Amino acid sequence: MSALGGAVETAPVSSLHAFGSVNPDDFPVPTGREEEWRFTPLRRLRGLHKDAVLGSEGVTVAVDAAPEIELSERTRPSADSSFLPADRISARAFAAAATATVITVPKEAVASRPTYVTVTGTDASVATAGHLVIDVQPYGRATVVIDQRGSAVYADNVEINVADGGDLTVVSLADWDDDAVQVAHHVATLGRDAHLAHFAVTLGGSLVRLSPTVRYAGPGGDAELYGITFADAGQHLEHRLFVDHDTPNCRSRVRYKGALRGDGAHTVWIGDVLIRPEATGTDTYEYNRNLVLTDGARADSVPNLEILTGEVVGAGHASASGRLEDEHLFYLQARGIPFEEARRLVIRGFFAELIARIGLPELEDRIMQAIEGELS
Does the reported pTM lie above 0.85? Predict the structure, then answer.
């Protein structure tokens, strides 16, 4: 399906994510009463959802590619692109991006080291649009780290294509300055027996809203979506996932964990999974866990599972938000560990399992140090 063919229905059997278009005018300006915008504080979006002029001046993008990776740039998102925006901000960013950075993993190539895409915000007084393409050709294997930092107002799209037999790990690290605003969409398409591990690590920024979407282009596709979030006073960190099972015998796993502290800290996790009638043999599970560390912090967690066939391997979801367990702290304190150190150890353990899955020791250490810095 060409993304430049105008508006199309992307999920006609479901009320969720049922419309897509490359034309921003096909989407009304959000009011906050819509289901997909009801948690987002629109007044803090700096006009990204309305008519803020999107340019290219407020952000720089630098790529340190593995030697096996092909790096290129195209003048604008291509007519061959499979990317289809699902809301007004994504469509505005798609239309405004003057160039797209393209990272290609050639057929059967195995990257010898991670490729780092460093996105640096340099000016939050202007709004910027971005577009990144990660194209893994058949049986290619690679890891791409998107390291986002600095001060920016940024609307960006990331287009991920993993062809048959490909294997890709993407780590999206949002370590913005305190005044940054970002609205991002990551859309992945997996071919036959392709595997994607997607990590969303969201720590910085005033408002960050990330929407990962997964679709399948052949049986045997396997998507693992992981999230690590720490929000402090005044931060709004929102993740809205959509896994569209429209192909038989595919798998998805979603595991997101978050912690919050401070007045006005707010996290939102929306996990939407659709199993269409033709997606027999689907195996899916999603969960979200949140630690609310102080009064005045709020975690919203909404899992949605829509099953339109009875022939599935497994389908389930779970969500929980709560305080630290008193017995865990008591156990450590009873062994002579001071309260603050016990608290730090419990929170470290809460995140450690997901962080260890990244498989990049330097990045894992950086993330854990950032979380411990939030606690202090």
Answer: yes
